[in-house]
Design brief:
Layout lengths: L4 E4 L3 H10 L3 E4 L3 H8 L7 E4 L8 E3 L5 E4 L4 H6 L1 H6 L1 H8 L4 H6 L2 H5 L6 H4 L41 H7 L3 E6 L2 E6 H4 L18 E7 L7 E6 L10 E10 L2 E10 L6 E2 L1 H7 L6 H12 L10 H19 L5
Parallel strand pairs: 1-3, 2-3
Antiparallel strand pairs: 4-5, 5-8, 6-7, 6-8, 9-10, 10-11, 11-12
Helix pairs in contact: 5-9, 11-12, 12-13
């Protein structure tokens, strides 16, 4: 690990001033992903700004029925919070489906948003990776692709986003509050993460001097929500495919639906085409199947991950079926 300066920020303004004056600075919250990447010489900051003691750890109810979540809320605290468990069970389930208990006790909501891909070629400095070194190429293309994307990828990158929590937050129309010395702005989570296109190294809409301070969830369209994660083993494994779904049915008709997919794209994938097919349709297995097929129509496999397309279809249908037949929350 290279030499770097370390600053423990006592308040938000100090943290923001530090990165505003140092172009190669990184914020450290829970720190697990950043520290891993520094050990692998992938992240090479000159300054690390420790923000772990900033007052960004609250979870509070908003006047309209939504919830505001501080960026430094630990994942374990988020999953256990009564407001989250009752109004947004999909969020609690997504958190509990990720990593291990020890990591959830350290990981933060803001850090989760900024996780970088777990693509093995990204971590291997001997391999070509446009995300790690723009213009070098992509060893994943033609390589081992079992864990790679089938939606939203490009000829420059087919890596997937690793987060479980972000999939649930994407389905729920979360907004991200960010702050810099220039002021505060809000970014819809669907616009926060970027598809690779020709610049896979540009992963978010966040400017280098901006700090994520909070996530806000609107009042839920329904409390009937669920997160389903398909993976190679039951613990400490990233999703091959995951589905975050919220479904409201009245008189046999879908009156509200929210869907997002994980493990299949370079960003948490909002399934807008499936939502379009489902809204106003009969709440039946056939409708669920048609919606899944519509969403995956544009998917493209890369040999080793061809199976993900059918797996995603089946997981969407199974998740919606479970919501229809079992309306209980966590």
């Amino acid at each position: 690990m290279r030499t770097f300066s370390y600053l423990r920020a006592p308040d938000v303004k100090t943290a923001l001033r530090a990165v505003a004056t140092e172009p190669n600075a990184k914020f450290l919250g829970g720190g697990t992903n950043l520290v891993d990447l520094m050990r692998e010489n992938i992240e090479r900051p000159d300054v690390v700004v420790d923000i772990s003691r900033l007052p960004l750890t609250g979870i509070e109810e908003l006047p309209g029925g939504g919830v505001r979540i501080g960026a430094l809320v630990r994942n374990s605290a988020l999953a256990a919070h009564p407001l989250v468990r009752t109004r947004y069970p999909v969020v609690s389930q997504a958190v509990l489906g990720g990593a291990s208990a020890q990591l959830r006790n350290m990981a933060t909501v803001g850090g989760n948003l900024l996780q970088r891909t777990r693509c093995l070629y990204f971590y291997d400095d001997a391999s070509a990776c446009n995300k790690r070194e723009p213009g070098r190429g992509c060893s994943a293309l033609g390589g081992l692709t079992r864990n790679h994307g089938v939606l939203g990828v490009s000829e420059h990158c087919i890596a997937t986003h690793p987060s479980d929590l972000c999939v649930a937050l994407t389905a729920l129309d979360a907004e991200i509050e960010v702050e810099s010395t220039r002021g505060t702005r809000r970014i819809p989570l669907t616009e926060f993460h970027r598809l690779p296109g020709s610049t896979p190294h540009v992963e978010t809409a966040l400017a280098p001097d901006e700090l994520v301070t909070a996530v806000e969830l609107p009042a839920p369209v329904t409390t009937h929500s669920r997160y389903r994660k398909v993976r190679d083993r039951a613990s400490y494994a990233f999703a091959l495919v995951s589905v975050a779904a919220a479904l409201e049915v009245r008189d046999g008709t879908v009156t509200a639906v929210r869907l997002a997919l994980g493990g299949v794209a370079p960003k948490p994938w909002r399934a807008t085409e499936a939502e379009r097919v489902l809204l106003g349709a009969p709440a039946t297995e056939e409708s669920f199947r048609l919606a899944a097929e519509a969403e995956l129509a544009a998917a493209t496999g890369h040999n080793g991950n061809d199976f993900k397309i059918e797996l995603a279809r089946r997981t969407i249908v199974a998740t919606l079926r479970d919501l229809l037949t079992d309306r209980s929350a966590v």
